[in-house]
Amino acid sequence: MQDNNKKKRLFVLDTNVLIHDPSALFRFSEHDLFVPMVVLEELDNNKKGHSEVSRNARQASRFLDELISNTIPEEILKGLNLSQRICLDEDSEEVLLVSGKLFLQTTQLSTKLPITLPGQKNDNDILGITLALQNNPDLPEVTLVSKDINLRIKAAAIGVQVEDYNNDQVLDDVNLLYSGILNLNESFWDLHDKEVESWTEEGHTFHKITGDEVKKWYPNQIISIGDDQAFEAIVRQNSEAGVIVEQLRQFYSESHNVWGISARNQEQNYALNLLMDPNVDFVSLVGQAGTGKTLLTLAAGLAQVMDEKIYQEIIMTRVTVSVGEDIGFLPGTEEEKMRPWMGALMDNLEVLTENEEAGEWDKQVTSDLLATRIKIRSLNFMRGRTFLNRYIILDEAQNLTSKQMKTLITRAGPGTKIVCLGNLAQIDTPYLTETTSGLTFVVDRFRQWEHSGHVTLKRGERSRLADFAADVL
């Protein structure tokens, strides 16, 4: 929890905070925590099942059990010492420095709330407990922490100090998100033209540029200089001696396309350069609907799987979050259950395999061949797996939390490339925002890694109707 005020505080945790991030118990630095008994009851009610909510509820309960084990009741009353702990997960150890205490509700705390206060009884109980703690002059400043917007509104209405849990907030404003593209004026050459060294190697043109400004460039960042994009390059190496950039390949023409797909604008060309580069293991593409994220990614995947034989197969997955009403359980195998969620894959495959001159038999053979090289997998079965030499496409990545994103990306074995696609304006997961999405998290964290690249696509290419709707609706 980010807090600029060094004065010690007491935070009351709502259930959704622990379900959203079980390690929240250890993320309040020197401040104390208070967990109402109703929160423990709600954790117990949510612990059954195989969903992310159930797993997090169980993990939160395990953390609490570790804290309370071998502890006598008198110590619980005085507060459980959080001290320094190491939170273990499947893949890493994270050391969290904590000096506060954890208090569990052991006595009845009640404060009369307005009779007309609507809402669930559990929420009102938490509000009443927080209000009672605030009225205790012996306690430090008391604040309720909740991911529930409506609960925060109710708390503010009755005078309860309340905050959102923002420990996982990557940026203060999504407009600050790294775009992957740096547009510079022609005047850049006035200061750096004499400091450029150029050479050609295996058909690729490289330039070495020195100066203070270039030290701020990130690996695999796209550099565009001039109003007409006369110079376009990608950063290959950044060191004290200078920055080495490579001029971009151009995928605009029919003779230089990717699986029949040509770039329709500069951003799509930038994306294809990253997608077709085997030295870039992780690519993230962010953009609104119709910018070509899925089509470009799938075309690049087919080209590298079918033609260049760099990867063995394409694996495509996404979070199964409904936009409307849930259609219920789906029959069949894992792939058959996921197929209704993969409409974007099917639509783009039709475009990529469209051939007016081919007969029905040829089209069926092509479809069957691609089906053997494209696998649809569910995120629910990713734990414990390792993917070798695979081209993994994660669609609708904006609906993933940072923890889910980590779980997936750490599945990658040698020779695997992961491409994350998403539109931060279309988040359907409860308690996630543009600044806390797992997609925002990885874009920000991966920008300094030499084997990752990112492009924000802004120009839609679906149709004039779709472009107009995206602007005015």
Can you give a write-up of this model?
The protein is α/β, with parallel strands linked by helices and 473 residues long. The chain has 3 domains: 9-163, Rossmann fold, CATH 3.40.50.1010; 178-247, no CATH class; 265-472, Rossmann fold. Helices cover 31% and strands 21% of the residues. The strands form 4 sheets. A 6-stranded mixed beta sheet has the order 3-6-2-1-7-8. A hairpin with a 4-residue loop joins strand 4 (85-88) and strand 5. The longest helix has 17 residues, at 52-68. The model is unreliable at 1-5 and 321-327 (pLDDT under 50).
What structural keywords apply?
15 helices, 473 residues, Rossmann fold, 20 strands, six-stranded mixed sheet, alpha/beta, disordered N terminus
- Per CATH, the class of the largest domain reads Alpha Beta
Quaternary state, please?
single chain
Q: Which residues sit in consecutive blocks of at least 5 with pLDDT less than 50?
A: 1-5, 321-327
CATH fourth-tier homologous superfamily of the largest domain = P-loop containing nucleotide triphosphate hydrolases
CATH architecture of the largest domain: 3-Layer(aba) Sandwich
Helical run tally: 15
User: Mind summarizing the main beta sheet?
Assistant: 6 strands, mixed
Distance between the termini: 36 Å
| Overall pLDDT confidence | 85
Q: What form results from the Cα inertia axes? A: elongated
Would you give the CATH topology of the largest domain?
Rossmann fold
* Extended strand count: 20
| Portion of residues within helices | 25-40%
Strand content: 15-25%
